[in-house]
Design goal:
Elements: E1 2-8, E2 11-17, H1 23-30, E3 49-52, E4 55-58, E5 71-73, H2 86-94, H3 103-116, H4 122-128, H5 140-154
Parallel strand pairs: 1-5
Antiparallel strand pairs: 1-2, 3-4, 3-5
Helix pairs in contact: 2-5
Length: 155
Amino acid sequence: MSRFAFTLNGSPREVDADPMARALDVLREDLRLTGTKEGCGEGECGACTVLLDGEPVCACLVPAMQLGGADVRTVEGVASAGELDAVQRAMIEAGGVQCGACTPGVVVSLRALLDRDARPTKDAVREAIAGNLCRCTGYERIVRAALEAAERSAR
């Protein structure tokens, strides 16, 4: 076991974990942040997407030792002050949320996109969520939600 200090959703945190434990397990089991979902456990579905130093990564592929000194943002850290983020609101309103298995990873991926590109194109949105598999919505509602969230944020 090793102790890792990092920033989690804007707050300093420390956790004792096996350096090779998956960040996904540390987040869900040790820190009880269950918004990040496990889908495939192989980095193929994107359900476990979190931001690591601002970049979307599959937490199932990240060893806990990479958390040390990092800035980690999970789906729980997307909303602020008890208010849903523009991405979350738009996903609900556009019907981009159905079964919910992929939703946390999609929301995190879209938030990362809008953080770096306030006015993305449809193609940029599609590229940003290319690593997030969704079996329910057919993606068009997710793309529409992303563009709506960008529009709202620009106002």
